[in-house]
Structure formats: C-alpha cells, structure tokens
Amino acid sequence: MNEQSDxxxxxxxxxxxxxxxxxxxxxxxxxxRTVETIEHNGVLWLVPEWIEYTADGxxxxxRIISLESIWHDYTPKGxxxxxxxxxxxxxxxxxxxxxxxxxxxKVIDLPDIWFSLPTLN
Length: 121
Description:
Number of domains: 1
Structural class: mainly beta
Radius of gyration: 14 Å
Number of helices: 0
C-alpha cells in the first residue's frame, strides 16, 4: 500500500467500511494471488493495490478491474469469497500500465471510491 497526501479527500461520512472488502483468488500469470475485491455499482472489482492516506484515516484503490466479463464464482461465506477461473495478465498489478488486462476487462485508475483505514482490535 502506498502513502499519499495530495488528493482531495471527501468527508469521512462518505467513506465505505473496510469490512466490505472481500478476498479473491486470482491466477496472475503463473502465480496464484489473493487480491482484495470490492462491490461497486452492483459489480465486483479487483483492487490489486490501495493508496493510503494515513494522516486522514482513509484509503482508495489505485486501480480497479471489473469482474463483469471475467469468469468467476462468488461465495459470500469463508475466507476466500471470490475465485477467478481465468488466468489474468501480469499487468493487472500496478505499477504496470493496464494494457493487456484492459483488453478483457474494464479498468479504472484512481476511482473516486474511499474506505476508512482498517483498524486492529
């Protein structure tokens, strides 16, 4: 996760709960990775990396990749809630430009989606 401080941060009343973040298993190239996933506008999106604004207590995705056109299964129970069946290109992961992944899925860099930073109890 990156640390940033140059964005205009919306009011914390608009931030989403980090408990809404779920986990996906994704084959990226030849590696099996866990990738955080969110629901946005009724669609599941992979979030390979977050930007943290620790002084403000929030974070936002650096990039999101829609699962709408990618074969996957969603199960709301368990530690892994999403399993992506397709092997996805390496450029899914920042900082690589999303050239190959954009050929098969919608990609949005720096979406205006904000979450509170998770806290440890």
